[in-house]
Amino acid sequence: MLDRQRMDPALYRDAMSRYAGHVQLVTTALGSERRGVTITAACSVSDSPATVLICLNNSNAKNEIFFKSGIFALNTLGADHQSLADAFSGKTQLTVDERFAAGKFETLVTGAPVLSDALAAFDCRVLEIKQASTHNIIFGEVMAIRYSEPKPALLYMNRGYHTL
């Protein structure tokens, strides 16, 4: 059995910065309150039933709405969404209303805000939340899907945006 060693967080982050991730915007709503966060930690879990997962930092008190609402939308961003990705990442210091005004949002089934021109949008109800260290993994059953015509994707790698 191997002894558990503590990995240096800075070393880990530097290595992970070389890992290309598709830029996603995850959104939710609870009553009149809305929240959106730019993430790269999201993926498909299953196609039967259609299920995705997202990972959110549990130390940010503003993310609590994701854990309470029971819904979220996973919006896949294209190359033309870089300014929207910046807005929801917090880099621009915009208010919640200003962030949502930067894109066109609608609702499908659950009531979570869906980006109208996302490459793909998955409207989900929360199935399960698991805490893993600094993050919560939220599993969502896909209740509705919307997608646009194929266009270049927005990726994040080496601490910067790229397209594919």
Automatic annotation (TrEMBL):
<protein>
    <submittedName>
        <fullName>Cob(II)yrinic acid a,c-diamide reductase</fullName>
    </submittedName>
</protein>
<dbReference type="InterPro" id="IPR002563">
    <property type="entry name" value="Flavin_Rdtase-like_dom"/>
</dbReference>
<dbReference type="InterPro" id="IPR012349">
    <property type="entry name" value="Split_barrel_FMN-bd"/>
</dbReference>
<feature type="domain" description="Flavin reductase like">
    <location>
        <begin position="16"/>
        <end position="163"/>
    </location>
</feature>
<keyword id="KW-0560">Oxidoreductase</keyword>
<dbReference type="InterPro" id="IPR050268">
    <property type="entry name" value="NADH-dep_flavin_reductase"/>
</dbReference>
<dbReference type="GO" id="GO:0042602">
    <property type="term" value="F:riboflavin reductase (NADPH) activity"/>
</dbReference>
<dbReference type="GO" id="GO:0010181">
    <property type="term" value="F:FMN binding"/>
</dbReference>
<dbReference type="Pfam" id="PF01613">
    <property type="entry name" value="Flavin_Reduct"/>
</dbReference>
